[in-house]
Amino acid sequence: MHSLIIFVAKYFIFLSVVVVGIYWLSAKVSVKLSLAWQLVAGGILALGLSVLAGHLYYDTRPFVSHHLVPLIPHAADNGFPSDHALLAAFLAFTMFLYSRRASLLLLIIAVLIGWARVATHIHSPIDIVGSFVIAGLSVIIVHLIATIWGSRRGEAGWRQRR
Description:
Layout: H1 2-26, H2 29-56, H3 62-65, H4 83-95, H5 100-119, H6 125-152
Helix pairs in contact: 1-4, 1-5, 2-4, 2-6, 4-5, 4-6
């Protein structure tokens, strides 16, 4: 069982990237451009908010505070927020703007990653929840900016689905 938890915690993030990549490759050019912009701008914002949140809140990793052996070797640094959960949730929330089906799959993957990171004792639930909140805020902010910018330019269909 530990092997499965470790595998999910370490490697499921690549599954999220592959799902988004397959969607991007199969999309129309206009959707590709829109999705790429959302991913780059939202990713930069999510990363910035993550760094800021890490400076504002320190959460000792569970294996340190509870004197446990982590299933994955890790530095005893700030666990807040979880980078893996942040990326997985960010991809899931971004894809919600383009494909509900892909977004649901990615959200399931993100929850599994978060659960596995907690089960390996390298993150606490607050690290995972914080990552999901930061990811959601980033997607919402970038989407609002893009919508306002698109409406000012007269682009009624800025957000297009495949």
